[in-house]
Amino acid sequence: MFSREFDAIQIEDILTGANVARSTFYQHFRSKDDVLCAVMGIHILEPLARAGLRPEPAPELLQLAHHVWENRRLARSIFWGSTRTAIVRNLAGKVEHQLAGAQPTSGLPIAFVASTIAQWQIASLEEWLMGRHRFDSEDWARALCRGTRSLTSALTGIEGGS
Questions:
Q1: Domain count within the chain
Q2: 9 in a structural domain
């Protein structure tokens, strides 16, 4: 199953690989995209959601950037296509959690701010993974932190990012 691109994997493949019944699967997940986001949560989505908390990348964001670049062919198949919407939705929820308690002076709802940040982060990741612009994983992680802080500040009216 892991040798194929994500779009080629069917629910039946997951059920067989995990040795679970269809009803058990649907008690926990709505789709294979939900499974992917659950797996990606701690190691991929959480570091992205926390990117705006500090001006320089945390070690886990640097590790993520390096890993994604080293596995960019697989990463491109995950971050593009049908899974992109689910990833952005889940990332936006995590960003919104990071922004909890913030009092935007812009008047924009936090959910809108979080969704915009998540969309930008994934777009930045996609552009970098395409390889049209040559720079290393550390530079991308640094740009992601700075860009996330700037975007958060612009959308919330709160200086210093999230």
A1: 1
A2: no
